[in-house]
Write a structure and sequence with these properties.
3 helices, single chain
Length: 113
């Protein structure tokens, strides 16, 4: 559903050694460098990928049902029911996310400067 977006964290490379480090054994320091990664997609790319995945998830039951109706032996009615359940869950998640985004926007607009 996230269209291949997974954060890329190289923790070992971000560890900074300082005077505070204990130096006990091979235990690395707990201090990390910056979290941002310049190669990660921006907000617009992530959300457009999520919308495209949601659209694909919603069209899957229709496509599977067409295959069942045309007599394809590769698709079973159970696959159609599973795809319908997945699309219902995706709609519920998308609705919840939309509600949370609207709530956050309302809270931000209520902040007095």
């Amino acid at each position: 559903m996230f269209n291949g977006f997974y954060p890329r964290y190289e923790l070992a490379g971000r560890i900074q050694h300082t005077k505070i480090d204990t130096g006990v054994g091979n235990m690395p320091s707990a201090r990390l460098s910056r979290v941002e990664d310049n190669t990660s997609p921006d907000f617009k790319q992530v959300f457009s990928g999520l919308v495209e995945d949601l659209n694909t998830e919603l069209n899957a039951p229709d496509n599977l049902l067409k295959d069942v109706m045309s007599g394809s032996k590769n698709v079973d009615i159970h696959d159609v029911m599973t795809a319908i359940s997945k699309s219902e869950i995706s709609i519920n998640v998308a609705t919840q996310i939309t509600g949370k985004i609207i709530q956050a926007y309302d809270r931000i607009t209520q902040i007095q400067v």
